[in-house]
Write a structure and sequence with these properties.
- The complex is a heterotetramer of chains A (102), B (168), C (741) and D (518).
- With 102 residues, chain A is mainly alpha-helical.
- Chain A has four helices and no strands.
- Chain C has 741 residues and is mainly α.
- In chain C, strands 1-2 form a two-stranded antiparallel sheet. In chain C, strands 3-4 form a two-stranded antiparallel sheet.
- The longest helix of chain C is centred in the last third of the chain and has 59 residues.
- Classes of the chains: A mainly alpha (102), B mainly alpha (168), C mainly alpha (741), D mainly alpha (518).
């Protein structure tokens, strides 16, 4: 059995990232897209922390904390927008919203 | 069991949890289900952090993501989706496209990862980084940290302003 | 010398008095009683007294066999390299500035005041004429709309003119030279509501400025060789053999000194209205008549003569010959035009040009090498006497015009002698002086001296005999047209009864200057003390000496003539002993007699001719005009000089300007605009590609065609998934491209 | 001293930013308050520049031989070795003073603007900051930043508050300047990568000391011309001049004043500050086998003559003045090329004088444009008699531009002529021929200026202008100081010459060391 190396964590991050991309593309619901973005951010965080450990340099972890903070901001604002969107259009389907714009 | 084995076991367990929960998050027809699955994904990531010795981050992950963002998302879903809660996955064609794109991204990232970081030695056993992290955050990175907190504050105020019911 | 500082301070005071008056009047003339004319006049009066003090001092010094020569200078303008470096870095070919008085150790150009006999004389001329004209103007321009401005300009003019004669260097001379031109511009255009006046002002400024370019080039040449502007430095440099390098311009070979001198003379030609740059002066008569008297008869136009006189030692013989010929041509040409002019001021203007030509001729033949010393002296002397009687003539004509309610055509006058007795009497004196009435008038002596010098020059250099004869002929013409003027204006039957009826003698402020000038035009001014002609020095020749640069008098540079000159001169000089050396101011007896007889003869001939035609009317003027019609038309059109300039200079110039403008707009700017257009076209093309190819490849569906048109809208579809897909596809493509899996 | 020396330049540069913030805080309704605040802040800047001039003399600047004063130096972006490095020598001091004066006076000329007062004055303050910064900066990157900073407000000031074709003019100005900036940026990058390892790649002092690419003259020449074209566009040198007439014609009066009075000087300043000392081998050597200075002199000659011809043919009053700027800036190029004390001092003095006289001319045009709302020269006539005070100022302005002795323009022109004519043939080949040809410009200048004056001011008063009032107090206030300076500097030119003479002499000695035999 191989020991757990950096590559493993990076693979996990890559998987998370790919799934985030799929969610962003496949979901029509705005909340779904938001979830996808959260996944992508988490993927980045996993990589950051893994690298930080590997290089024994805590800067990566600081970055991860800041990413989490920004994710929180983003979630708050995005949900506010989604709610407004819902109020305006009665739906949170992004395609519909974009069609209205024309 | 040697620590490596324990570590490996925990890692693979977390990885399995991640894969399954992630799949549900992405492919589930119900947005609520997706949200709950996201809980496990996030927990898995928190586990990774703990495994990597980033205990503070693990805790933060749980508190902020699970306790904050996820709840926020659920509220968002409940507030916006009329029952029955359907999820909106796009047309079948888009769906396939999405999966293909995801696969491509994954493949691509894996290629890069293997090209650069294959065969690295095992990640060493870690001590807690809490103290060092604290020093960093309130020392070298004080300004970005404070700035981030300011951003958070601004975002919260902005969000509150945005969802304020318009009386007109 | 004890009086040194004292005189220099007087000079400064003379300069500053009108300057102060100018500043005060220019700023406050609206608030001052009578627009402040009394300030200008009284300040000028004080300056006049100071000038007379200096003049008396100079005469006194001359009586004690001393020459007045004082100098004071100040640092003014940083130009040269500081002395410490000058030896190494100095300008090519320049003498070490340490030897130059006109440059300070710090490398600044020094400018200052040079007071010598010539300056003293010029100071008196300028202040006397200025004062009288200022006084005269107070009556002539009474009630004018821009009375205050007029006096401010006059004052500025006096300042500049005094500065010009006080300068000890070419740079400040050039500055004041331009400033007097500027004042002339303002004053010619005094009544600028009249288009003709505005046109004349511009013409005067531009024409003289063309000459000034030549002068500037001359100054540049001198400065680049000498490294200083001061007369002294220049003379010394030339004396040491500087500026003798041969330079060929337009196929003409000449020394650097020659070209510099010609350049300077170009400036003089512009300012002193010498052929072919004389065309502005007749038009300048659009200005008020006192202005014509002051600027365009007595002082400013004489500045060119003054310049040649001041720089006379610098002029090599070839350049002086050029000066002499230009002077002779000008004298004759303008005299012919004056014959047919009807406007009283135009006649006087052409007469002025003609007399300026005489002065140039005198200076031209007065060269130190192979020339006639008397020519130099009488050239400048004629400047002095001419200033008085020509100013008088203009003021007199102003009196007539004033009386005739600004009618200027002589054919509207007639018989005015009875109505304007004082004007007539003084006018007659001025005319006689101009025409050279023997012995009783100042003009006779000086003009006779010039003619004599020209004749003597012809004797020494037989191929240049024509100069003397031209001068004599022009004198006859002068006599004719001046008496034509007199007869038409003051004699005969009034041709315009109404005008005649209303004519009246001018007020005292106008008459008094006439009387003063009349006195100054009498013979004693031009004569020597004993009234025995030219046997002893006149006051002028005791004050003004021709500066000498030549160490060895036998050296003559006049090509081809040098041998003849040497042979022509020496025996004669030997014959007449010590009194007639090459440097003597006295003429040879032959030349003197020829000039005397000749000028009296032509004077009488002109007088009689004019009387026959215009007084007795035995010969009808129109009959002559009919017989010599082509000549008459030629003269009436002023030798077609104006037409020539308009057709050959002004018109092509304007056409070229518009051509350049077209080039600028349609060639150079068009290139710029083309690039702008090309950029836009490129952007459009890229936009199209984005629309048709990139987008089509991604979606492949029909709706993309619905977005034909703007790229901007296309990118804002809100389809997040499309962006991500494109991103992924692009990243994959890049990876495949570069990774070579 | 009230202000410490090291703070002076910083204050001069950034006081306008404070002004900008203050103006932004004033509600747009209070137009008068905004105008006076703007004037107040430019006034403060002007007072500071006067203070600086005084300190410069007090510190012995004129006799120091090109030392820099008021130096302030601090790290700014240390990763790229970019410093906040400012300092002023005689050249900077004189131009900073000019900028202070003109921005103060032009602010009053902008009082007539009614539309978007707040925006205008905010932009104006930013512009002042940029201009000052350019003249103060001693770090190449800082220089570039200010250079670009000034571009932005200028674009908006022309594009929003300009005449009918303002968008076209603004974009043309912007693109032209941007092209130049790009060249400068590329050259700066080349310098950066060459000297990154030394840790001072943008320090102008250091670069001058190093003489970049001494051993690779081809590259040095490339850099020289990249910088030169950037500055030549600003000057503006033929054939890069066509933005100028459009920008001038469309810009509001105050901006035309700044444009002609200050912006054009930046080109000359840049050449003196960067081109000549930094690339000495190219300056004193050849480009493509032709003497570099000779090329500059020929373009200067073309500017003089070509600008004069173009000006003569213009029908628009402002365009005429704009082309006269082209002609006058040619003297600057000619002076630069001749490279001796008289010529270089003359060139700097010409920049200063042109700043005064062209500012006056644009203000003068502005005065009648405000009344007549058109600028067709042919439609004017007889204004001189009708507006005597204005006419008196106009005479001084126009004749200063014409180069009448006794006014400042003459001194600088004659210095350039004298310098260029006496230039060493080894330094500037055919110097005499070029100077002789350029001297024709004197007549051409007289031609177009007098003709223009005649058509506008002389002749009979056209009836439609009967109601025009004479210049009012504000107009006189803006014009009179310039007129007085024109006269004073015409009579006592050493007042100005002493400020930058030492700097210029040391520059020349730097380029042509005494020992080299020139």
């Amino acid at each position: 059995m191989y020991p757990i190396t950096l590559t493993h964590y990076l693979a996990a991050g890559a998987f998370l990232f790919a799934m985030g991309v799929v969610a962003c593309i496949a979901r029509r619901n705005a909340v779904g897209i938001l979830i996808g973005i959260e996944l992508i951010l988490n993927a980045a965080n996993v990589n950051l922390v893994a690298f930080a450990r590997y290089w024994n340099n805590l800067d990566g972890e600081v970055f991860a904390i800041i990413v989490i903070i920004l994710a929180a901001c983003e979630a708050a604002v995005a949900l506010a927008i989604i709610i407004n969107l819902f109020r305006g259009f009665g739906t949170v389907e992004v395609d519909y919203a974009s069609k209205l714009k024309e | 069991m040697s620590p490596e084995i324990v570590q490996a076991v925990i890692f693979y367990f977390l990885a399995a949890m991640l894969v399954v929960s992630c799949a549900i998050v992405v492919f589930s027809h119900s947005i609520v289900n997706a949200c709950f699955a996201l809980l496990f994904t996030l927990l898995a990531v928190a586990g990774f952090y703990a495994l990597l010795g980033a205990d503070f981050l693990a805790v933060t992950q749980v508190v902020v993501y699970v306790g904050g963002i996820l709840v926020l998302l659920l509220f968002g879903i409940l507030l916006t989706s009329p029952l029955p809660i359907v999820l909106g996955v796009a047309t079948r064609r888009t769906y396939y496209l999405a999966v293909a794109a995801g696969a491509a991204v994954f493949a691509m990232l894996m290629i890069i990862v293997r090209a650069f970081w294959a065969g690295q030695p095992a990640v060493p056993e870690q001590q807690s980084t809490l103290e060092a992290l604290g020093m960093l955050l309130l020392g070298k990175y004080l300004f970005p940290f404070e700035f981030a907190s300011l951003t958070l504050l601004a975002a919260l105020i902005g969000a509150a302003y945005l969802v304020r019911r318009n009386d007109r | 010398m004890a009086m040194a500082d004292y005189f220099i301070h007087l000079c400064i005071a003379i300069f500053l008095l009108p300057l102060t008056a100018f500043v005060v009047v220019a700023l406050f003339h609206r608030r001052l009683p009578r627009h402040g004319d009394w300030i200008v006049i009284s300040f000028m009066g004080v300056a006049l007294i100071l000038a007379l003090v200096i003049f008396a001092g100079a005469l006194n010094a001359a009586a004690h066999q001393q020459a007045l020569r004082q100098h004071r200078s100040w640092e003014w303008l940083l130009l040269n390299f500081p002395k410490a470096n000058s030896a190494e870095t100095g300008v090519a070919g320049a003498a070490a500035p340490s030897a130059l008085e006109g440059v300070s150790p710090a490398g600044a150009v020094r400018v200052g005041i040079l007071l010598d006999g010539l300056t003293a004389v010029m100071l008196v001329v300028v202040t006397v004429v200025s004062f009288l004209v200022f006084l005269y103007s107070s009556a002539y321009l009474k009630g004018d709309v821009r009375y205050g401005r007029y006096y401010a300009c006059l004052s500025l003019f006096a300042t500049s003119m005094l500065g010009l004669v006080l300068s000890d260097n070419l740079l400040t001379l050039y500055i004041f030279w331009e400033l007097v031109g500027f004042c002339s511009y303002l004053l010619i255009g005094h009544w600028f509501e009249r288009k003709s006046a505005a046109d004349a002002a511009i013409k005067a400024f531009i024409t003289t400025r063309i000459g000034d370019v030549g002068m500037l080039i001359g100054i540049l040449l001198i400065y680049s060789s000498v490294g200083s502007f001061r007369y002294e430095d220049i003379f010394r440099y030339v004396q040491e053999g500087g500026m003798s390098d041969s330079v060929s311009i337009l196929g003409l070979e000449g020394s650097l000194r020659f070209w510099a001198a010609v350049g300077l003379f170009f400036g003089a030609m512009g300012k002193s209205a010498q052929f072919p740059l004389h065309v502005w002066l007749p038009d300048a008569m659009e200005g008020p008549t006192p202005v014509s008297a002051l600027i365009h008869a007595a002082t400013m136009v004489a500045a060119g003569v003054y310049l040649v006189g001041r720089m006379h030692p610098f002029f090599p013989p070839e350049a002086l010959l050029f000066v002499a010929y230009i002077g002779a041509i000008t004298a004759a040409l303008s005299a012919t035009i004056a014959l047919v002019m009807d406007d009283i001021k135009k006649v006087l203007a052409y007469s002025t040009i003609s007399q300026l030509g005489y002065m140039m001729l005198g200076l031209g033949v007065g060269g130190e090498v192979g020339g006639v010393a008397a020519g130099f002296l009488f050239g400048l002397f004629h400047l002095t006497t001419h200033a008085f009687f020509k100013a008088g003539l203009f003021l007199g004509s102003g009196s007539v015009i004033h009386a005739a309610h600004h009618e200027q055509s002589m054919w509207q006058y007639g018989g005015l002698a009875r109505k304007l007795p004082v004007t007539f009497a003084t006018f007659l004196i001025f005319t006689l002086s101009l025409c050279g009435f023997p012995y009783l008038t100042s003009g006779f002596f000086t003009k006779d001296g010039i003619i004599g010098a020209a004749l003597q020059f012809g004797m020494q250099h037989p191929s240049h005999r024509i100069l003397g004869w031209t001068a004599l002929g022009a004198a006859g013409l002068t006599s004719f047209y001046m008496f034509r003027l007199i007869f038409l204006t003051f004699f005969g039957r009034p041709r315009n009864e109404h005008l005649y009826h209303h004519a009246h003698e001018s007020p005292w402020a106008m008459v008094l200057p006439l009387l003063v000038l009349a006195v100054l035009s009498l013979g004693f001014v031009g004569s020597n003390r004993t009234f025995g002609l030219l046997h002893e020095d006149s006051w002028f020749s005791t004050l003004v000496k021709r500066p000498s640069l030549v160490a060895h008098p036998a050296e003559s540079a006049l090509p081809a003539e040098s041998a003849a000159a040497a042979h022509g001169m020496e025996p004669v000089a030997a014959e007449h002993g010590a009194g007639h050396t090459a440097d003597s101011i006295h003429l040879l007896p032959e030349a003197h007699h020829q000039a005397l007889v000749g000028s009296i003869t032509v004077f009488l001939a002109g007088l009689i001719g004019a009387a026959l035609v215009y007084y007795f009317q035995w010969i009808r003027a129109d009959a002559i005009a009919r017989i010599f019609r082509p000549v008459y038309v030629l003269l009436l059109n002023k030798w077609y000089m104006d037409h020539l300039y308009r057709a050959c200079v002004i018109l092509p110039y304007l056409v070229f300007c518009y051509f350049i403008r077209l080039v600028d707009t349609y060639v150079i700017d068009a290139v710029v605009n083309f690039w702008g257009w090309a950029g836009r076209a490129g952007a459009w093309l890229v936009g199209r590609m984005d629309l048709e190819i990139v987008d089509g490849a991604v979606n492949g569906t029909a709706w993309s065609t619905g977005f034909a048109g703007r790229i901007l809208r296309l990118t804002q579809t809100g389809q997040v998934r499309n962006y991500i897909l494109i991103l992924v596809a692009g990243a994959t493509a890049l990876l495949l491209l570069f990774w070579k899996i | 001293m009230v202000v410490p020396d090291s703070l002076l330049l910083t204050l001069i540069t950034f006081v306008p930013i404070v002004g900008l913030l203050v103006i932004l805080c004033i509600p747009s309704r209070a137009a008068a308050a905004i105008r006076w605040t703007s004037a107040g802040f430019t006034g403060i800047v002007f007072v500071l520049t006067c203070l600086m001039l005084g300190r410069y003399f007090a510190l012995g600047g004129p006799s120091s031989g090109g030392m820099f004063y008021f130096v302030v130096k601090a790290d700014w972006i240390s990763t790229y070795h970019i410093q906040y490095y400012m300092g002023a020598d005689g050249l900077s001091v004189s131009l900073i003073f000019l900028t202070g004066l003109l921005s103060f006076l032009a602010c009053f000329a902008a009082f007539g603007i009614q539309k978007g007062v707040k925006g205008f004055h905010a932009m104006y303050q930013l512009l002042v900051c940029g201009m000052m910064g350019v003249f103060c900066a001693k770090d190449l990157f800082l220089f570039y930043v200010f250079w670009e900073l000034m571009l932005l407000p200028m674009y908006f000031l022309i594009g929003v508050w300009g005449g009918p074709r303002r968008e076209y003019a603004a974009i043309k100005f912007f693109i032209y300047t941007l092209v130049g900036s790009v060249l400068m940026l590329l050259a700066m990058l080349a310098l950066y990568f060459q000297y990154r390892h030394t840790g001072r790649p943008f320090d102008i002092d250091f670069l001058i000391e190093q003489q970049p690419f001494r051993t690779a003259l081809g590259i040095q020449q490339l850099l020289f011309w990249a910088f030169f074209i950037c500055f030549a566009i600003k000057i503006p040198m033929f054939p890069f001049h066509t933005w100028l007439p459009d920008a001038h014609v469309e810009a509001p009066t105050a901006i035309s004043v700044i444009l002609a009075g200050v912006l054009l000087k930046m080109g000359g300043y840049g050449i003196f500050r960067i081109n000549l000392p930094m690339f000495m081998d190219t300056t004193t050597g050849t480009t493509l086998g032709v003497s570099t200075l000779y090329i500059i002199a020929v373009f200067g000659l073309i500017n003089i003559i070509y600008g004069a011809f173009c000006a003569m043919a213009q029908t628009d009053f402002k365009k005429l003045v704009a082309y006269s700027s082209v002609s006058h800036m040619g003297y600057v190029l000619l002076g630069i090329a001749a490279m001796n004390r008289a010529a270089v001092n003359g060139a700097v003095f010409q920049m200063f004088n042109h700043g005064l006289s062209s500012a006056m001319l644009f203000l003068l045009v502005g005065v009648i444009y405000d009344r007549a709302h058109h600028r067709e020269i042919a439609r004017f006539g007889g204004l001189g008699a009708h507006m005597p005070r204005y006419f008196a100022l106009a005479i001084i302005g126009f004749f200063s531009s014409l180069g009448l002795p006794g006014l400042n323009g003459f001194i600088s022109e004659v210095m350039v002529f004298l310098g260029a004519f006496t230039a060493d043939e080894r330094i500037l080949p055919y110097a005499r021929v070029i100077t002789l040809m350029a001297s024709v410009g004197v007549v051409l200048t007289a031609g177009y200026i007098l003709w223009c004056m005649q058509r506008v001011y002389l002749g009979e008063l056209k009836p439609e202008y009967k109601a025009f009032p004479d210049a009012n107090a504000i107009e006189i206030f803006t014009l009179a100081p310039l007129a007085v300076l024109c006269i004073v500097l015409g009579i006592f030119p050493n007042l100005a010459l002493r400020v930058f003479d030492g700097t210029m002499v040391s520059l020349i000695h730097q380029l042509y060391p005494v020992a080299s035999g020139f």
